[in-house]
Amino acid sequence: NRQYILESRPTGPATENNLVLKTSTLASPKQGEVLLRTIYLSLDPYMRGRMSDAESYADPVEVGDVMVGATVCQVEQSEHPDYKVGEWVLAYTGWQEYAISNTEGLMKLGESPDTPSYALGILGMPGFTAYMGLLDIGEPKAGETVVVAAATGPVGATVGQIAKLKGCKVVGIAGGSQKCKHAIENLGFDACIDHKADNFEEQLKDACDQGIDVYYENVGGHVLDAVLPLLNTKARIPLCGLVSQYNATELPPGPDRLSMLMGLILRKRIKVQGFIIFDDYSDRYGEFAQDMQQWLNDGKIKYKEHLETDFENTLNAFNAMLNGENFGKTVVQVQQP
Ligand code: NDP
Fold first, then answer.
1. Domains in the chain: how many in total?
2. Distance between CA atoms of residues 47 and 154, nearest Å
3. 55-104 pLDDT, tens per residue?
4. Does pLDDT of 252 surpass 90?
5. Which of 11, 143, 276, 301 could covalently link to 295 via disulfide, CB atoms 3.0 to 4.6 Å apart?
6. 172 CB less than 6 Å from ligand 1?
7. 253: pLDDT strictly greater than 90
8. Atom of ligand 1 nearest to the CA of 239
9. Pair 69, 181 in one domain
């Protein structure tokens, strides 16, 4: 059983010295347990936080343990009456080829689901995050302008498409012209601005000619700097993530803008609310799943995956995702179904 073990905590981007691919002997499931074979592993930005022991909303992975992560698996061996060999489950078995589970927390996906990996993206945690953050905290109204960065990733792409369904004007922010083209042509955004362009701030200002009513915050950094002056009175900011900081080893360059930010929030009466999806909204998963399945069935929401097919390249794929070298939801195909 090949497993990625957290051997040491990274400073900056994780390296092969921090996450080491090791082989262990596979145990057999006992009564009441199942042996799961990992087919898909989700790679998500939050994992960088789990590698670190800095204070967070969740405990870090212990040094010496398998790196955590959501997976879609098939039951390989079953000693549990409710689970049949071959059936698919959503699990949380981490960066490894096989795992034994007592079935707690498994979600059944059926015997031959059409798109099993969607449970890691559009129909799973990232889709749910987009849905709740936008609708419950962002409260978008028809005609308003919604801005979202990381616009072609699983959260951002979903935020923008739901906002379009709610009748908003949607301006995406993404890294590079190919991603921006995709956001406009395939996802239906009204505009998408390349945050690496020299005149990014100016282009964003032109695209948001009525100001910004909802800024769905995924990234922080220079994107947030460009957004702040464009916020309208009573704007809402669902504070979902700050991916530009996850690999940071030092504070951002000065001057300190905190008091300016607080002044802006006060004068414009801006609502900023952080949220952690399963801590805050687990009771509303059913509502999301129903709406999203319907939108997918009706062709109203599009979804793009970035599939890594070499398990030995998992760490590179993870770092690439944090750097914006992914194009769509990053998923590793660990083994063939
Ligand atoms: P993505 O697959 O979109 O990957 C992250 C993207 O961030 C990159 O592809 C890149 O896109 C962009 N990015 C990276 N660095 C920068 C930078 N310096 N400036 C601007 N953009 C940058 O990720 P997800 O959709 O999975 O996650 C999006 C956000 O949602 C993350 O912050 C994540 O932590 C957060 N999240 C929060 C949850 C919660 O419960 N609060 C739950 C799930 C996710 P590009 O090339 O377009 O710049």
1. 2
2. 15
3. 899 999 999 999 999 999 999 999 999 999 999 999 999 999 999 999 99
4. no
5. 301
6. no
7. no
8. 41
9. no
